[in-house]
Amino acid sequence: MKSVGTYFLKNFGCRATQADGAAIERQLLERGLTRAVSPGQAEVVVLNTCTVTASADQDVRSAIRRIHRNNPDTRILVTGCYAQRAPEEISALPGVSLVVGNSHKHALADYAVPLTSVGGFVPLALVGAAAEPNIVIGDIFAHTELLAAPVFDGDDASDKTRPNLKVQDGCNNRCSFCIIPFVRGRSRSLALEPVIREANDLVTRGYREIVLSGINLGRWGRDLSPRSNLAAMLRVILDNTSIEKLRISSVEPMDWTSELIELVATSPRIAKHAHVPLQSGSDTVLRRMHRKYRPWHYADRIERIRRAMPEAAIGADVMVGFPGESDEEFEQTRALISRLPFTYLHVFTYSSRPGTPSAEMASQVPVQLARARNRVLRDLAAAKKREFLQSFVGRNLQALTLTHFADGQTEALTDNYLKLLLAGRHQPNSMVTARIDAAHGELITGHIAVVT
Predict the structure, then answer these.
(1) Is 38 in contact with 8 (CB distance < 8 Å)?
(2) Quick one: which H or E segment has residue 320?
(3) CA nearest neighbour of 99 among 128, 89, 125
(4) Residue of 18, 400, 20 lying closest to 210 (CA atoms)
(5) 410, β-bridge pairs
(6) pLDDT of residue 125
(7) Which residues of the chain have pLDDT under 50?
(8) What residues are paired with 345 via a beta bridge?
(9) What is residue 117's predicted lDDT score, i.e. its pLDDT?
(10) Which of 12, 109, 115, 154 could form a disulfide with 27 if both were Cys (CB 3.0 to 4.6 A apart)?
(11) What CA–CA distance (Å, rounded) separates 282 from 298?
């Protein structure tokens, strides 16, 4: 197909946003556009945004100003979660030609093509007469589309060994701190047929590990007819593809059912890795957050996962500084984390989001106090990780090789989610059995015992 213009696409934020960007890029290429090597060489720049924190919004605004300053002739199209939440705020920035919310992201290529040299404007019939001149947005809760295309962890070709496949989008929960349901809409699942098609395509292209992801992955299948669940989808993938390793991303605690735990524990083709969001270990804070579980429910799930998978990586998201978090409530969180068998944590400091209930709550925690609590939990997590890493010295672990380093080492990721440096240069995307020689800080080192 003859090229009709050039584009550059930049993604911000989570794996789901990255996956949306991969699907958008597929559409742009299908329309005949050519990818530019930099924003300055593109006729249209697509910014696929995140809005989970105030700093995420700031990153987007800074990018818009920088792109416009360096190339005033480039037309900037902004989409994604920030575009859905605050379209007027974005459209007022110099250089922004069009804002397309998540409600219309599935048709973004239809808006991007006219912004290239074909015409430089979007026809009114396409935008809609009722819309603002440079804003395309609709009711996100009426949105039923789900963009899906594999996305990779790294930009370098050698890093493209672990494609992420988004199989679910949106969320029906209403956590008081979270803006995501209001910018991504209700939970919706990718049907089994396209899941299997995408997975088999990745196998055909030579990939050996696939990461399944979603905004609320554990809710996969609840909206389908007939109704299904995550464990059932995993079984269908295992039965209908030859993928060597499946890894599931974050799954809410109450979605770690007995069926799912048993399947992950017993299948050699599913990575021994459980990421289970915690947010807080205080019952009163969880209630203010509108989370649907209590600390004892959460602890039960983690302990069951550890009993079923003694060597599994177990991680969690934890938020500090939620409005009203007292010293006692923080200590409850620290104590729960201390006694549970976590191997890593993602610790975040609360960020107020306009439009969420928590933004209006009294007793906002001082930033310096929240940061101090963040450091306490990070230090605790680091100690737990060091102990976990040390337990594998002298043992064998399965791993996937990722990329080379100039000093003759090769990075790999173990089945149980440990960063591994292997002696020598080895081909990326190889499944190996590695002998672990030592543990150093955040990683382990070793050498290859068997290549499969």
Answers:
(1) yes
(2) strand 313-320
(3) 89
(4) 400
(5) 404, 422
(6) 57
(7) 1-2, 129-130, 154-159
(8) 316
(9) 67
(10) 109
(11) 11
What domains are defined for the chain?
A: 6-139 (3.40.50.12160), 157-390 (3.80.30.20), 396-451 (2.40.50.140)
Q: Which two tokens stand for residue 262?
A: 């048993």
Can you give the pLDDT at residue 270? 98
Distance CA 219, CA 229 (A): 7
pLDDT in the model for residue 197: 93
> Length of the chain, please?
452
The end-to-end CA distance of the chain, in Å, is 40
CA distance 39 to 79: 16
CA torsion angle for 34, 39, 40, 43 (degrees, to 10)? 50
- Give the 3-state secondary structure of residue 344: strand
Q: Is the pTM value of this prediction over 0.85?
A: yes
SS (H, E, C) 77-90: EEEEHHHHHCHHHH
